[in-house]
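User: quick one, fold this
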Amino acid sequence: MPEFAYRLICGQYVLHKDGQPVTAPVDEVALAFSRGEGILHKHGKPETVQQWVVQARQKLLGSNDNPESTPALRQAAGEMARALTVLQGRFLLEDLNQCLRFQGYAEQMYDRAMAGTLSSIDILGRVRQPSEV
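Assistant:
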């Protein structure tokens, strides 16, 4: 199974697969995940991740137009659409890479961000505690 990990190169995030770069550098990373389940669906360039979430929500909510869709299915699709969440920023590499390895870690980061306790890094790679941001 391939190993994916983000690295900082000249202050920008680059996703690597088995040690080789596979994405263009970005200043920030976005994480799309399902609240409640903690499933990471998409990560990377913020614009791409945001676009994916919009399209996924449209597809889920569009299932309501399917005449074969049951009320329970429509309700579940709506809940799934509402659960899609995006967290974007300059994350610590350890946190970011944990999201790729462990289901639920993105949601833990989100909870820390909402509580004001999620650390970040500046463009030079220095760790910034929440009180310093």
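User: anything notable?
Assistant: The longest strand covers residues 4-9.
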